[in-house]
Design a protein that fits this description.
The complex is a heterodimer of chains A (about 375) and B (about 375). With about 375 residues, chain A is an alpha/beta fold. Helix content of chain A is about 65%, strand content about 10%. Chain B has two domains: about 1-40 and about 170-365, no CATH class; about 45-145, abc type-2 transporter like domain (abc type-2 transporter like fold), CATH 3.40.1710.10. Chain B has a four-stranded mixed sheet, sandwiched between helices. The chains are: A alpha/beta (about 375), B alpha/beta (about 375).
């Protein structure tokens, strides 16, 4: 036990001797959280609209006014030339072209259906779908208006109707900061633990100082534990800082137990650090380690369901995620912070994380060789 | 010149000797493209939903079947009372609950209206909005079916839509350009900053500095191999996106490759700049990895469009080179536009490259201390 404590002390001294790293491990996460968390939203607003109004009747003006009135669309351009409109789309100046044909006003005032053509920039498929849905909504509304105006022509018969009301729990206003903060926190904690712990170990190998440990009676598991604990502590401090920032600047609700969140994160960090040390026993140089780490991190993060819904992934990807610690922690964080889930609700995630942690750490201890 | 070529050869040997790095250098982009193409999708499929049916009549059964069989949802549980809602949300599998009030069918027939409540889990706002929107659409379809065909004259305006550039609404139109942008800046900046600081940290830089090579030759020699490797990488990614996702380059390939070269150059000079300010490899890796990765993913318009961010981020992201490159590559690859449409962005990236090179030359020290 005493040996481990001494080794841990050595590690801390080594980490904090590097002036840049010692500042960066706390400074970078804070700055990135402050800058990145408010930036992200899936909410779509300010869709730039270009109108080709070939009709120029009071009806087409009415529709355009209706579109201008919604916060979703911004009327940026109005033109008569289709080519100019396409040009604007090419140059990224507008996202949506609405072409109103001539005769539009005459047709609908006489009760005949009339077509209008919308062209959406669909490179971003999900935005395009939403834009189209909103546009459709505005047009349907306008349609209803006209019909009620012509009520004498078309007496409205009352139909049985199902009314739908909807609410969002845990995040009434759909504030994206509540969603992003737990996620970004996970990425930063992972990146710091994963990168620094592994690099630290490989560096000792590369400059040869590991030999000095290898010739001492320090046991393998003692060495690995001593390499893990400092980064575990740093990771948890970063987490605490991140949570404090979330509470103070973004007023993130915290429904669940703080202790539970830290427990989950601690198990997660052990898993990640175990993997980091395992990879580092396999790599010879810091460059090699960095690339392998980069590879794993990107896969872990992108497949964790952090920015995209987990259920939409193909089945094989969901099966892969059984071994992905990031996926568990993101779920735990969101559930505990926003919904106040208890230990019973997340027991499955905790057990899985613990198994992953045990496996990776065992691999690391097994693979570490004291003899060259 | 001969000296310089010799130096470049030395650098190549360095790289090729380490076959593991080489495999990863080419493996990462391939894997990322595949992951993004096949795994990452912002649409919803099989979202878990639960139903609380207090009425249990013909209409509610029919409507809930309709909702469940739409393909977007998967039923996780049947609830019995309002108290179950919170419990089932806390378990995490269920993203939304649909509630049919008592006497749903009777109200609908007698009073002509009945109400259904949709409660979605707002801790994932995107999923919550999508689920709500899809369900509302299903319900309004159901309403229409209930009433038979709409009375003539009730639909006057018939909007038609053309999904431009991407008629099948595939998500890799968005992700392939993004991945190229992300990979190039990360790999180039990482690689150069690490190889140069490595020489510094191990003291071999001194050996190079006392050689008759000029500092500029040393830097160029370090950068040339990575320039070539990254360029090969770009070609591989483009071929893959063409073969696997059937996403060909619509515009001029020569122009696209030229723009990629410029962007690689910019990333390499950024790497050099990072190496001049860092003393150890750890530091260089920290800056180019943690400092660049998240901002590049989040602020370049790769996944999240910049127009939707608060206004201030429009300015913040102006200093991010990936932002401009994404516009360039999307214009050439997907829209098929020419140089005339991207000259501004090209100029900004060129200016950034010059700025990074200028700063590095100023900071590069011939003496070690």
């Amino acid at each position: 036990m005493r040996t481990i404590l001494y080794l841990i002390r050595k590690e801390f001294i080594q980490i904090f001797r590097n002036k840049f790293i010692s500042k960066a491990i706390f400074g970078v996460p804070i700055v990135q959280m402050l800058i990145l968390v408010p930036a992200i939203t899936f909410e779509i607003k300010n869709v730039s609209l270009c109108i080709i109004d070939n009709d120029y009747s009071s009806e087409s003006r009415g529709l355009i006014n209706k579109l201008e009135g919604s916060t979703f669309f911004k009327l940026r351009y109005s033109t008569w030339s289709e080519q100019e409109a396409n040009n604007l789309l090419h140059r990224n100046k507008c996202n949506l072209i609405l072409n109103i044909p001539s005769g539009f006003g005459k047709d609908i005032s006489s009760g005949k259906p009339s077509k209008i053509l919308a062209t959406v920039d669909a490179i971003n498929a999900s935005s395009a779908q939403l834009t189209w849905a909103y546009l459709n909504g505005v047009i349907t509304d306008y349609n209803l208006n006209i019909i009620t105006e012509n009520i004498s022509l078309n007496p409205v018969i009352s139909f049985p109707r199902i009314m739908a009301t909807n609410r969002f729990w845990y995040n009434e206003t759909l504030n994206y900061k509540y969603y992003m903060l737990p996620g970004i926190l996970v990425i930063l904690v992972t990146a710091i633990g994963f990168l620094l712990a592994g690099l630290n170990m490989v560096r000792e190998k590369e400059i040869g100082t590991i030999e000095q440990i290898n010739v001492t009676p320090v046991r393998k598991h003692q060495f690995i534990i001593a390499k893990m604990i400092p980064f575990l502590v740093i990771g948890l401090i970063d987490l605490a800082l991140g949570l404090a920032i979330g509470k103070i600047t973004f007023d993130i609700p915290f429904e669940g137990s703080l202790l539970l969140l830290f427990l989950g994160s601690a198990i997660f960090l052990i898993a990640v650090l175990g993997l980091a040390l395992f990879i580092s026993t396999l790599s010879g140089t810091q460059q090699q380690y960095m690339f392998v780490a980069f590879f794993f991190m990107i896969i872990f993060i992108l497949m964790s369901g952090i920015f995209t819904p987990f259920e939409s992934m193909p089945v094989w990807a969901q099966i892969f995620d059984v071994a992905n610690p990031v996926a568990y922690l993101i779920r735990i964080n969101r559930m505990v912070m926003l919904k106040g889930s208890t230990i019973l609700d997340i027991r499955g995630e905790l057990v899985a994380l613990a198994i992953i942690a045990a496996c990776f750490t065992t691999f690391a201890v097994r693979r570490y060789r004291k003899t060259a | 010149m001969k000296r310089f070529l010799g130096f470049v050869k030395k650098e190549f040997l360095h790289i090729f000797r380490d076959y593991r790095t080489l495999i990863i250098l080419f493996g990462i982009p391939a894997v990322q493209i595949l992951i993004f193409g096949f795994v990452v999708s912002t649409d919803i499929k099989n979202a878990g939903v639960a139903i609380l049916d207090l009425s249990k009549d013909e209409v509610t059964r029919e409507l809930s079947d309709k909702i469940i069989s739409s393909g977007f949802f998967k039923k996780t549980e049947t609830l019995l009372s309002y108290n179950d809602i919170d419990l089932v949300f806390k378990k995490g599998q269920t993203k939304a609950v649909f509630i049919f009030g008592e006497n749903f069918g009777r109200n609908l027939m007698k009073e002509g209206k009945a109400s259904i409540s949709i409660i979605a889990d707002g801790s994932e706002p995107n999923v919550a909005t999508l689920i709500t929107n899809y369900t509302l659409a299903i319900i309004s379809n159901f309403n229409r079916e209930l009433n038979g065909s709409p009375a003539s004259g009730s639909v006057l305006i018939q909007p038609e839509v053309k999904m431009f550039y991407n008629p099948n609404l595939k998500s890799h139109f968005m992700f392939v350009p993004g991945v190229i942008t992300l990979i190039l800046i990360l790999i180039c900046a990482l690689m150069t900053s690490v190889t140069i600081t490595r020489e510094k940290e191990f003291g071999t830089m001194e050996v190079l500095l006392v050689s008759p090579l000029k500092p500029i030759q040393i830097i160029l020699g370090k950068v040339t191999p990575y320039f070539l490797l990254s360029f090969i990488n770009v070609n591989l990614i483009l071929i893959m996106s063409w073969l696997v996702f059937e996403l060909p380059v619509k515009g001029s390939i020569a122009l696209l490759l030229l723009e990629c070269m410029l962007y690689i150059l910019m990333s390499l000079s950024l790497g050099i700049l990072i190496s001049t300010v860092s003393k150890t490899m750890q530091q260089a890796i920290f800056i180019s990895f943690i400092g660049l990765m998240l901002p590049t993913i989040l602020l370049s318009g790769f996944i999240f469009p910049i127009e939707n961010m608060p206004k201030i981020y429009d300015y913040v992201s102006m200093i991010m080179p990936p932002r401009y490159f994404i516009i360039i590559i999307k214009s050439i690859m997907i829209k098929g536009t020419g140089f005339f449409f991207v000259w501004k962005e090209t100029m900004i990236i060129s200016l950034m490259t010059l700025l990074f090179i200028g700063l590095s030359v100023k900071k590069f020290k011939v003496r070690l201390r």
